[in-house]
Write a structure and sequence with these properties.
InterPro entries: MCP, MCP_dom_sf, MCP_transmembrane. It is a multi-pass membrane protein. Keywords: Membrane, Mitochondrion, Mitochondrion inner membrane, Repeat, Transmembrane, Transmembrane helix, Transport. Pfam families: Mito_carr (PF00153). This is Mitochondrial carrier protein. The protein is mainly alpha-helical. Helices cover about 70% and strands about 0% of the residues. The chain has a two-stranded antiparallel ribbon. β1 and β2 form a beta hairpin. The longest helix is centred in the N-terminal third of the chain and has 31 residues, at about 100-130. Residues about 1-30 and about 345-350 have low confidence and may be disordered.
Length: about 350
């Protein structure tokens, strides 16, 4: 697919820029053993952060997806509290965490690549920016951080998108579903066999568009808030140039809330497009024989969703998502920095 080629070129460009920045700053021809070790530690820290944060909010994550894709002809989940109670009553405690194993298997490499790509993209973008006359001593600005965050999000999402698609389907299937995926490998094989390889990237376009404000704003707002707090030291929140864990949690919460609110309609459309073409789909999608809408593309999905369900349908599941996104994003960032500090990773941009 052409879009995949674009993402691949973007990834390669960022990697090359990051390498050039290392060579320019360190005066060496190849990454040192210490640099490679730092890269590995960065990947570990990002992976742990993603796994811990998603597991902590798994019940809300599952409910959000169920609300996004359930057939409007037969509503089973109607709100956060009612939805969680319904899952508990019909599927038990394990039902609250259905799909979490698949989510962790996807989110660990996703978060690892995302955090690593962000830091490498930041170095490359800053190096490019400093090549312009008058910017030799420039530092990262919110706009540059936004670009680095968006690049990181697109690279990570594209690399793991097939797992996200099967994770969505595994999450919504219940014991009453006419056919069961038995796990990640079985789901991937079934989709490939019945729907073809392109089906693994259904909903990719709204994901790419939505990830730009979502991940971009997450990183830009979080890093900018940290810098502002350290420099201005308001309300005595900073001591010795270090932020407390509570303050970092607050920064992560603000960043996550802003990002998810802007990008949420794209997430709804992505999930609905992922369900299209699913033979023997889960009962929550088919609603006891009442077929769900078919979409020919992203714009068609937006148009039909608004036409048949109203504009508010683009925000179905927003409440549980808002409840989960604050601790999820905050825990992800704080876990990343704690693991990074524990492993002794030096992440500062080279001059």
């Amino acid at each position: 697919m052409a879009s995949e080629d674009v993402v691949g070129k973007t990834s390669a460009t960022i990697a090359n820029l990051a390498e050039e920045a290392k060579i320019a700053s360190e005066g060496v021809k190849a990454p040192s053993r210490h640099a490679l070790l730092s890269i590995c530690k960065s990947l570990v820290a990002g992976g742990v952060a993603g796994g811990v944060s998603r597991t902590a909010v798994a019940p809300l994550e599952r409910l959000k997806i169920l609300l996004q894709v359930q057939n409007p002809h037969a509503i089973k989940y109607n709100g956060t509290i009612q939805g969680l109670k319904y899952i508990w009553r019909t599927e038990g405690f394990r039902g609250l965490f259905k799909g979490n194993g698949t989510n962790c298997a996807r989110i660990v490499p996703n978060s690892a690549v995302k955090f690593f790509s962000y830091e490498e993209a930041s170095k490359g973008i800053l190096w490019l920016y400093r090549q312009q006359p008058g910017n030799e001593d420039a530092e990262l600005t919110p706009v540059l951080r936004l670009g680095a965050g968006a690049c990181a999000g697109i690279i990570a999402m594209s690399a793991t998108y097939p797992m996200d698609l099967v994770r969505g389907r595994l999450t919504v299937q219940t014991d009453k579903s006419p056919s069961q995926y038995r796990g990640i490998a079985h789901a991937l094989g079934t989709v490939l066999r019945e729907e073809g390889p392109r089906a693994l990237y259904k909903g990719w376009l709204p994901s790419v568009i939505g990830v730009i404000p979502y991940v971009g704003l997450n990183f830009a707002v979080y890093e900018s808030l940290k810098d502002w707090l350290i420099k201005s030291r308001p309300f005595g929140l900073v001591e010795d140039t270090e932020l407390s864990v509570t303050t970092k949690l607050a920064c992560g919460a603000v960043a996550g809330t802003m990002g998810q609110t802007v990008a949420y309609p794209f997430d709804v459309v992505r999930r609905r497009m992922q369900m299209v073409g699913w033979k023997h789909a889960a009962s929550v999608v088919t609603a006891d024989g009442k077929s769900a809408l078919e979409y020919t593309g992203m714009l068609d999905a937006f148009r039909k969703t608004v036409r048949y369900e109203g504009f508010g349908a683009l925000y179905k599941g927003l409440v549980p998502n808002s409840v989960k996104v604050v601790p999820s994003i905050a825990i992800a960032f704080v876990s990343y920095e704690m693991v990074k500090d524990l492993l002794g990773v030096e992440m500062r941009i080279s001059d």
